[in-house]
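Researcher: I'm comparing several assemblies side by side, and this is the next one on my list. It has 458 residues spread over four chains. Same procedure as the others: predict the full complex and return the structure.
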Amino acid sequence: MAVNEGLSRLVARAQPRHRTTAEFVEATLREAILTGVIAPGTPLRQEDLAETFGVSRMPVREALRQLEARALAEFHPHRGAVVAEISAADGADIGAIRMALEPMALRLSLPALTAADLDQAEELIAEMDGEADPGRMGELNRRFHMTLYARAGRPRLLALTEQHLLAADRYLRFQFAALGYRPRSQDEHRALLAACRAGDADEACRLVTEHVGQAAEQLTAFLEGREAG
Amino acid sequence: MAVNEGLSRLVARAQPRHRTTAEFVEATLREAILTGVIAPGTPLRQEDLAETFGVSRMPVREALRQLEARALAEFHPHRGAVVAEISAADGADIGAIRMALEPMALRLSLPALTAADLDQAEELIAEMDGEADPGRMGELNRRFHMTLYARAGRPRLLALTEQHLLAADRYLRFQFAALGYRPRSQDEHRALLAACRAGDADEACRLVTEHVGQAAEQLTAFLEGREAG
DNA sequence: TGCCAGGATATTGGATACAATTTATCACCC
DNA sequence: GGGTGATAAATTGTATCCAATATCCTGGCA
């Protein structure tokens, strides 16, 4: 019996275009956790997952270990894994990491950004303007940020940055699920892009730090209120 | 037959004080990779590792997956895993990440540092002064940095920071193995500690950024020279 | 001589069955 | 009521088998 209806649909839709079964399971589970298809705290029972994916337990265990290393699952020895919990403290943690990584990525990338990159960022802003679907919005936002960082030439840094953008997005979806989705103004993104076009690295870094910091602050306020009451 | 003599000794000495076999294998392998006991590029054959550790292949596979997620091993489907290679590009990457994370960790931690913390940092500097063993030196250096960041109250940020301190240390050991060990002056550490004692966050962050940046630059120069010739 | 095809080989990837270990629960007795 | 031991359920680990695939090597061919 499938533990989770949403996950089953995700598995059915998913293209197993991966090199190994373990990677397929890991990618699908990761998406399910990040998009909120599986709620925080949900037990990830090996047997159930194996059945849902139609595979044996071995690739499932490998996938769970990888999710643990990415802080998307928590292991309790001999009790099993659960989807990572959401907390105000962890949200602030992710925010702090973003505020550290993203200005660095932007500063390294900015001098190498091409006109095509900047135009693509502009298009992404236009798409975000008036986007009604929070999931699509998160993806566009992520792509906008990553477009600006893409030329940093630092694969590790970019991977870490994207990983924490995704983690932040998970938190945002969680907030939207509770409070409803209210699209944000694109003014901050536009100002950031303008600074990039002008080649003003200091100003761009300042803006991105402020932008990320504000988002983290809003989120933390919501989460703390939720934990208090 | 054991693939690696050094690893066998590490396994023999290691206390399996871990919750599960997979975690024991992972921790031991991670230490072996980080300390250079297993050289970059070494194949990590499942069967051999299982025999060396005296366990079956499953916990070994779980351990390898975790090492992959930490960028300490590289997977090639149906060819197996190898110890992560060392390159100038990756060294610069790690340096950039440290330069992003450590000032953030320090800024968050500094206001909460206690007199005991600062005294312990001072002791660590004294120990480093004249330390002849590069391995011990790396550990002391890491503990010095982490002591200053410890009060940040951001577990994720600190874990990431320590992870990349360890990665940088691996590179440093590699350099020492090639060029011989030459102890560095503790002046930069002392200046950093002084700024922390004075509660001067801006100066402390500036110093730590400079300190990390210089270390990364030296390392990159060595690695680029090595790759060129 | 150079090169491509195809098979041999070794290793990983995955499935399955079973034993061991640990945790949590819950009745039971003092 | 609280501690205690049996019990159930889950993960963890082992052993073994087979499949898939990358690499290597050899032989045929231009």
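Model: For your comparison table: The domain at 88-228 of chain B is CATH 1.20.120.530 (Four Helix Bundle (Hemerythrin (Met), subunit A)).
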